[in-house]
Amino acid sequence: MADVSSSTNTTPTDAATARPGRFKEFWRYFKENRGAVIGFYVFVFFLIVAIFAPLLAPFDPSSQNRAATLVPPFWQSGGNWTYPLGTDPLGRDMLSRLIHGARYSFLVGTVVVILAATGGILTGLVAGFAPKWLDTIIMRIMDIILSIPSLLLALVLVAILGPSLLNAMIAIAIVLQPHYVRLTRAAVMTELSKDYVVSAKVAGARLPRLMFVTVLPNCLAPIIVQAALSFSNAILDVAALGFLGMGAQPPTPEWGTMLAEAREFILRAWWVVTFPGLAILVTVLAINLMGDGLRDALDPKLKRS
Description:
Its main location: membrane. Helix content is about 70%, strand content about 0%. By secondary structure, it is an all-alpha fold.
């Protein structure tokens, strides 16, 4: 009897220790992708820079010093440590503007993902649970939006709303929303045929509970991956709109706007174009690498037993 009771008591403990927690399991699959881990650390670095930008930036990003226009970086002849990465045509410190530009990039990515994901998930849930005629109408509208080049559609929307950073974020959120609609609808249609949803219907669960409590939590994995990719797309699109003069307006230290202001000096002051471009490149690459790792960690089909 003692042996039976002891084995009975240790079984739950052994089961608990044998099965890792969700976060540990996620991290185990995530860290197998070296590129994703590097991308995650770079993302965290830029996030810290964005949060503490006022403390890290040596100068105000908009303050001008007309006596120090187009000063080269410190390692080049004529450069100095007062302006480590040089100055722009108006004598503004490049390092300070790049640091504050990280704030705008993360603001853009966060706002666009929240707007696009919220609208897209709600619309996708409605399409998944709606009658066939309503589902057809919603998806045909999404197909029409997807058939238009995303940057062109964003340009048209910003031209209608007016050039500003806020309107650029709204336009890009509208452009990215169909991806969430299609992804959510496909996940919902897959889940609706499963036993736990049928059981919930038989038990008398109402439609809002079925949508938001029963089905939606099981559709989040691909949506999280899409959110990471949308974050990088939003940064790229806002930078493109800023470069075309339809996004953030000067003197806002947004990376795309910095490129637009400096393009005429590209041949005689390479740093005013190179550093904002590198900031966009590294940030977007890091987020895309991190998105690949999220896909590998969250997709059960890719997990090895």
